[in-house]
Fold:
Amino acid sequence: METRVAVISIIVEQKDSVERLNAILHEYGEYIIGRMGLPYRACEISIICVAIDAPQDVISALSGKIGRLPGVTGKTAYSNVVHTV
Structure:
């Protein structure tokens, strides 16, 4: 199985979506390398960065689920590193 390394940058503007976002990230926990979250209180948003190593379709599915959450924006950047597990 081929996997890619990617980073998903997430901005949360609606706090009501945080619980669902955490549940989605938990679903994909086996692929997550690391996660960093920063509350930006001055703007009342949260900034989250998730590093992931997963098959292309898994990364796309995770990004899609995140992007469908109300008040949540996610963008994915892919590395050129592809390896076989």
In short: The mean pLDDT is 96.
